Structures
1.
Amino acid sequence: MADVQAKPFLLLSIRAEERAAVNEQASFVRFLGVTAEELHRIELGAEPLPAIDLDDWAGIILGGGAFNASDPEESKSEAQLQAERDLARLLDIVIARDFPFLGACYGIGTVGRHQGAIVDRSWPEPVGPVSVELTDEGMADPLFAGLPRAFAAYGGHKEAISRLPDHAVALATSVAAPVQAFRVGQNVYATQFHPELDLDGILTRIAVYAHHGYFDPSEQEALGAAAAAVTVTHPMTILRNFAARCRSAGAIQS
């Protein structure tokens, strides 16, 4: 088996918008604490996902984007359907092996749907700052080590998880969305909020997705001001903790 310290991370991206995709990758690089060469990006939907040998990677991350797991099947593009097929096959392997995986925003719906959660449009949140509170299980989970019970994060989504399956562990919640984070097994995680987003990142997303139905384009300036009015520093710790767990031999299942 290759040296764990030498293994790169894999970022699965669904962002067709180049500015958002580049910003997302740079944000994950920064807050994971890795070099650009240590985070390889694959654009899902652009072409079929190649075979993934989990032994080649320290951990896998699935970011957000314009796809929604709860989109009506007839409305989904071929790119979205291809991404969903590829992710379902990959998650079969990841879950069976309990391999380190972190899904953010679109990732929580994708992992949730794969595991039998109810993913629907009952709990949307506007783009901008959100208030997150850890559950008792979240306070005890190593991914959230160093975080206070309540903290601010950035998010924005049309869909969310209304109900988790019994085998999933709820790690974080909020008034606006009951499932803000959960875990399956010991190493597969998902968050509704974006742990990679700082102010520059959320302002980039607001600009790029102004015409994607998340908000009225006329609200762009007000949303940016609301984002700037809140200090968001704690969610990035999640990424540092994830990287540390992936780098440790104990978190890698062979």
2.
Amino acid sequence: MNYSEVKQAAARIKQEFPVLDYFHSLVRSGFLKFEGIHGKEYFFGFLEQRTGSIAVDDKANVWYDHAAGKGGDVIAAVQEFENKTFFESVESLSGTVPVREFLPRQKPEIGPKIVVEKVSEISHDALIQYIRGRGIDLQDIAPFGKEVHWRNKGKRYFAVGFPNESGGWVLRSSIFKGNILGGGTSIRILGTVKGIKVFEGWFDFLSYLKLSRATDFKAIILNSTANLSFRLILDVLEECEVVDLYLDNDVTGEKCTINFIRVAQLFRYCLQKGSPTDWDLEALRGSRDKIGILLSNMKIIPSEAMEIWKIQTNVSDQRCHFSGFEDVNAFLVGGVHK
């Protein structure tokens, strides 16, 4: 790319590439943890931080690290977190290099690699009290969770740990929420699979088990809604169209639920029409309106799209069962079924 091309690409990237998507990719890589939404901003933090300091304004499409006193657009984020030059960042985001998950190169000051020192059955009083405070009995969590002790930058920590599909640990305690050794989803198979159930977090999954005593399903625990990618949704639909969604009763949960159902409707539409469902997901990279681009690529006009959104699928929104509560775990703790 010459200078003129770089300038044009940079202008397009700043306008079209969502900063929020980039920070969620850093969560998936295990480099950052997602702290949640406060007001109109999404907060992220490094694993060793108790409270995340990086705020992302999705509407303005900018980020700011309150601890470091720096921020900017998505190009500035790649420069900061992947240690790239401006030219390298633009080239990477413009898709002129092979598409890949963002793998940030940690800087020396971040410290040595996190070391897991012990994994055992849960026995620490503080963790037992934390689990009980979430409405879960120790015997119910035992088949899934462990007590994980790890060391980071010379300091030792411990928490309840759940394994994820990347070989890392999802860690939870009264003072810590994050991942170590890689992020990603967790999957559990119970009995003979007759459907798939999708949960945001492990305690939602455990709460559902306690409330329903259900078996014979595959559970996908997202561990973060950032992990609910188009690729994951398609993989689920290709495997089994009977899907129950137990996402949170908040703005993000609503958005993810609607998005999942719409992808399922478009998937069913393509099957009915005999159209291919191996969609070009690379073409959606960095887009805010992925479904809109898919419709455009398929040459589906607005009136036809309105009919697609009426198609009945076997993907169901289960949030009505814990209406008035933030999530399944809050419903359990609220004492509705005690």
3.
Amino acid sequence: MAGDYMKRQTMYFRMITSSLIRRRSRMLVALLAVAIGATILSGLVTIYYDVPRQMGQEFRSYGANLIFVPAGEESAISMDTVKDVTDLIPANDIVGIAPYRYETVKINEQPFMAAGTDLAEVKKTSPYWYVSGEWPANKEAVLVGQTVADLIRLSPGDAFTVTGIAANGESFSQDFTVSGIVQTGGTEEDFLYMSLSTLEDLMGNNGEIDVVECSISASQATLDNLVKQISDNVGEVTPRLVKRVTQSEGTVLTKLQALVYLVTVVVLILTMVCVATTMMAVVAERRKEIGLKKALGASNKSIVMEFLGEGLFLGGLGGLLGVVLGFIFAQTVSMSVFSRSISFQPLLIPVTMVVSIAVTGLACLLPVRSATDVDPAIVLRGE
């Protein structure tokens, strides 16, 4: 029994492949249609799932999307609290976390606002900063905002003296060198930037933070959940989303994903139409052959299985080609738009092949039905 079954299956496969080879010009058109549809499907689905990651990384160049300020009557945030908050954020989602402390100092008897921070983290949270010169390499080097530099005529490499009153009431005086000039076109140009430890040494009271800026690579929903979690677990801080960044990111992602979905559906419909048209032409071309088979005793079921087998074989082969070409397509788009490579999704292999086979199967339903309606007597008379 098993041997007879294998022989029938082998004969069935040979019959399908020989039929496809004999009509290779028409079948090549159908195969190309399926392959193109599968390529678009595989490529766009890959992009669909990778776009949030890619776009999230792009939006991180626009600055922090989450900030923490003291809660209630608290006047400052302690570094221990910053650590507690950081522990609640998944490490893989953190792009950068920059704490800021602000104090008023004087340069040439003019008051300016000094910001103490972790300059290495600022590079991550605020990559849009343009620094004319170099980032500070030691505690004696600082960044100066363009507005401050214009007021007191400072350039990279210039030395100046900062004076002020420490927390204990004593005055201080410290010499610094301008490492670079910060240009952003915003309020960042109004500050003097130095390391947090340097400002703490000047002022005397350590561990006090005014605000923490965070750049988190996560979706809007994830950020909302994170804000709720921090609010529930860390009472010393109030988390706030930067709406202009998070809302813009969410809007762009929603529109892009909707566009990908629409294009995929349209392409699959066009693929179905192309395959159906090709198979209808094949049925019309093989009317005499179908009539002869029926006259010799072939059942409608065998006719249906033959045409469906051809269609499903094309769907599987086209889907397999589409997986390979789709990844190349997605990789090309990602490198052109985001200048980053895209990750391959192994699950796309069975998904693309199943969808391709399903599309070709649906496309063959109408042609197969017309094949079963062939009347042997009429066809064999030449009518």
4.
Amino acid sequence: MKPFLLLASRAEDDAAEDEYHSYLRYGGLTAGQLHRIRMEAAPLPELDLDDYSGVIVGGSPFTSSDPEEEKSAAQHRVERELAALLDRIVAADFPFLGACYGVGTLGLHQGAVIDRTFGEGLGGVTIRLTDEGLADPLLKGMPEHFTAFVGHKEAVRVLPAHAVLLAGSLSCPVQMFRIRNNLYATQFHPELDVGGLITRIDIYRHAGYFPPESAEELMAAAGLVIVTEPMTILRNFVERYAS
């Protein structure tokens, strides 16, 4: 089969490696079936979408809705490159799954209002599927309610009219949406398990997601949460679009 493409932008090697291996594990992929590009490290090379089964955008410490003058040169470059690539992906309705940062990229590209109104701290939340979500093939086999890990400063406040809301939560009304037939974004992390969340809490304790002194408490709380359902989305994405 053609490989899937993972576009990553975590500068911290431990976080980047943990994320990559999570996508391999829960997507049921081998290293040869998931081509990763670390966008924060260098300009995006020329890509031919015909070389891939689908595109995945992982999480990121970048916050799309930050004031332009506060963004780093690397963030400005990554945003420009992703926007240009999304022009092509959306036009072709090419299989796309954006996790967390995918909301800030696909959402903004499609006219969503993204701000800090519905930010969530690091931890588990209850996700509820909409009627459209229950019927969507990417959510096949998912229960109406499930627990997923989140941790984000920004979120969708207003979806564009042409987007289909697939899931929400009490603290963040837009947890997953679809554009056209094959373009998806989740606010929660479908790749993230307890070990992965603990790793990120440790790495990002000074990144503004939570008070640094609360890191150990958050890690202990994460260990008490059972998260098993969101990973089904990754397996469904791979099974549906592998070509």
